[in-house]
Write a structure and sequence with these properties.
heterotrimer; A alpha+beta (about 150); B alpha+beta (about 250); C alpha+beta (about 775); B: about 250 residues; alpha+beta; Uridine Diphospho-n-acetylenolpyruvylglucosamine Reductase, domain 2; Enolase-like, domain 1; 3 domains; five-stranded antiparallel beta sheet; four-stranded antiparallel beta sheet; 12 strands; about 30% strand; globular; C: about 775 residues; Aldehyde Oxidoreductase, domain 4; seven-stranded mixed beta sheet; five-stranded mixed beta sheet; about 25% helix
Chain lengths: ~150, ~250, ~775
Amino acid sequence: MMQIEFILNGRKVSAAIEADDSLYSVLRALGMYSVKCGCETTNCGLCTVHMDGKAVLSCSVPAARCEGHEITTLEGMQEEAARLGACLAGEGAEQCGFCAPGLMMNVFQLARENPHATDAQIDAFLAGNLCRCSGYVSQRRAIRRYLSMMEVQG
Amino acid sequence: MAKYRNYVMAKTIEEAYALNQKKSSVIVAGNMWLRMCGLKKQTAIDLSLLGLDKIEETEDAFVIGSMTTLRALETDSALDQAFGGVFARALAPIVGTQFRATATVGGSVYSRFGFSDVSALLLALDAEVILFKRGAVKLTRYQQEPWDRDIITHIRIAKGQRAAVESVRVSGTDIPVLVCAAARSEAGIRLVLGARPARAIVAADGVDGAQMETFEHIAGRTAFGDNLRASAAYRRRIAPVLMERAYTACREE
Amino acid sequence: MMDERKRRTIGGVGDPVPKKDAPALLSGKPVYVEDIAPRDCLCVKLMHSPHAHAMIEDIDVSRAVKAPGVHCVLTYKDVPSCRFTQAGQTYPEFSPYDRLILDRHLRCVGDPVAIVAAETERQALAAIRLIRVSYSVLPAILDAEQALDHSVLIHPEENWKALVPECGADNRRNLIAAGEDKEGDVEAELEACDIVIDRTYSTQANQQCMMETFRTYSKIDAYGRLEIVSSTQVPFHVRRIVATALDIPKSRVRVVKPRIGGGFGAKQTAVCEVYPAIVTLKTGRAAMIVYTREESMTLSSPRHAMRMHVRLGAMKDGTIRAIDMHTLSNSGAYGEHGPTTVGLSGHKSIPLYTHNMKAFRFAWHTVYTNTMSAGAYRGYGATQGLFAVESAVNELAHELDMDPSVLREKNIVRQGERMPAYYGETADSCAVDRCIARAKEMIGWEQKYPARMMENGHIRGVGMALAMQGSGISGVDTGAVMIRLGDDGMYNMSIGATDMGTGCDTILAQMAAQSLECPVDNITVHGVDTDTSPYDCGSYASSTTYVTGMAVVKTCEELRKKIMRVGAQLLGCTEDDVLFEGDCVQKADGSERIALAKIAEMHMLAGYEDISACVSSGSPVSPPPFMCGCAEVDVDPMTGEVQVVDYAAVVDCGTVINPNLASRQTEGGILQGIGMALYERPSMDHLGRTVSNSFLQYKIPARIDAPSIRVEFEPSYEPSGPFGAKSIGEIVINTPSPAIADAVYHACGVRIRDLPITSEKVLMGERE
């Protein structure tokens, strides 16, 4: 067992971890239930969170490496979630919703890196976020709307 | 899932090297594939505090820290300019942006995965692997060696080359069925075949003025294997096509 | 009058209202099984068989039991000896009772050998490594073609039981079902035909791949009953299945379904529920099992792989006179959904070509093999059958040198026609002709058929396929809905239908809003809890909109009467003198009115009747939705790579209740169909081990693989459905495989009859 401290959604937290724990399991244990797990092979994107402002797969980040870093989950981005969520819900694009938190965290990253993304760029950027319900086309529309909305708001 | 007893954030490369001399130790780079391999080790050695995540440009080369992420390679503007965007094109199909945000170039090179898009491109560019103890070793050589206990600190790529990558995949984010990387330097064009599915190899070097028959001949003497994604026969069939496309692309660049 | 009604109804039938649970799902609220489980749940893990076919000779758990944190280790010696099925189906259960919770006889790789429950996942996994098992390995049957009457018996046990012997099951023959349905003299008709297409097609055991894997937790509640919270499509069936497996009264079991992370049929089988349940019974502790993705890919309930032999007879002018079809279905190690899925392969494909049909014959066998047990997957056999029949029709078009869309227009079933191959039911609502016409326009069929050479050397081809499905299981499926009038004049609706992300909570509320002339926000929806929800067979067989939707309509009718009765009582007149106006009840002459909120308030006082209604509904028929899908593919002739660049689909699902959600169902189903056609490769090694055991090795389409998918509706009006609606959930997966296969054929002349369509098959295949 080892003890780590990091910033979770703006607040300092500490956690007792095993040497081989992932950030994912620590976040679930801390009650960050928006973070989901959909595979064991880094393919699904459900566990996406931000580490120091970058979207990462929390399943693959060693918890021990998080000492002193800033971790953000959807719980810590509720205002942005409401805005993007409204776009997705307007299309019915969330369907079962299980992949939504991970997708949304990566969309926030996209909005920072490439706010004027084309459809092809949206798809390429979010390719690591799988969804089995929607067929993606409605999510693409919703994300485009969100990006243009953010642009208007500046 | 990989299992470790201790997790050490190495403070110096010397410390990391010393710890890594035990068979019960393992270096953690991106922790993408390592996590999945079911390895059991006493000590995991983390290199992320060593500042090995920088891309430095010298007069004649790029020196890339081994902990540089694939995403950083893909988005680095100096690399992009020097190599005509080939890194972005070669790395973009790898799983997803989040994966590439933590997967490292050193991890890819050390692991010598047969399916590695990264290794194929670096081999074509005749990259050098800079090891903490041994110093610089050509990737062509390193790629064929067994796993050792030295630590990759940097990858060095000479400037003044043009490269192209062609691949066939089952789906857009899958590992390749076959990948061909080509690079043009003063010595002519080098062709690398990866995902054969065995380790990537230099299939031909110093090629110039090649025709389809040349590529077919090269494919004919290259070893291919079967796996879940395709048969050896299919790989042999498409290899000349990918070689021709990559060759043409980097010649025209 | 209608306008007034429309004004009061907000978010009723036809409105694209957002899903009621959208805000919770899109802010990451803890609403799924694993999020709401008690923190002190024991972690349940399974030890899996490494062999495809073996007997446990000896099993030693003595070290595992003593391992740290371990509360219970169960083997075949510890479980009840009554067999059961995990298939979530209504009485009479067609799937044979052929399982034990743990069995000495292991029938596929992955079959559970032991159940371990410990305080933590690490401890449970560590304990499994301490269990010592010696197996006597038996010869395994991995090929369905070899299974029937093989000397190796997969279910030799004496207490194997088929509850419906009429389905032809015989465990002494490795047979789960066999039968035949026919009308007319098919041999004579084929003989008289100018041309007979005689081909064999095969489809694979595709995985549903819902993002939330199988998971369940259980605990003993305050009344000493077993409470099961599960990610399931069939809570009421789970209650029966668990009670049967544990040999306890059904009254001791309560099943709750929270939000579900997708199902697509996978969760119509109780894949994992019995494992935590038996742990809770044995230990008294709350217990949870969460399948890994690997478990979900190797020990789950994929599509039945089928081999279909089709003989399609036609005249030179293109009239299709006879279809003869035989399906061999591989149910794997257990019989879940084996007898029923196979039926759809013929019953939901052949009837499309009723118009000129003189005779048909459809025969089938479903067999056991030593592979993963199959189950229900969206389309449920129709998907497989339609790949065969639609491909055969496309091949016929080519043989006749006829445009396949024209060939279809000539032969498709028309509204009002009796469909002999569809249990003799009549197509009371059918717009398949309009679906074809519109889909052709959308894809640009006239310009693009059959193929075009592109500047980069690629070739683009188009292909078409039709599909049908059912709407619930006729005479079997039933759903009840309970609606109560609450304070403020809002309504509490309880349903037993299971929203698994599809949005049925929302569309049923829309129907209630339409019927009760109120805003959809005035309808709260609750489901599902088997203790409090009205009975519903569950969400499968495309039943919810049609079957449960009708129950909503009937319940609302009754509720309106009750509201009017109390309203009349309060207005001091008879119920014949009042009108229901949504937000009030008023006298017919308009002189006096009483607000619904007031009625709600008053009925909570002594002297008034309770205002609630609960009505169930089932249907003697299962009206098919119809659909036409057109694919445009881009083929690289040098590598054989195939990319779908455009997909146009037109669906006749009767009245569209929520255009947004119906479109999402369609787009999602089409992309799953594209995955099945091109990317997904269920694979097994020579020892029967599933090697496509992860999202790394089993590629479902990613965003960059998704083409433009364009969906439109050509609604008919189904007289027996709620507001004229039929089903949508399943039909949408059926067209991509045959449409893409024909588009590929048009592009490069290679005919793929065994899915998936890989670049290797396209490049190396024989050009016709």
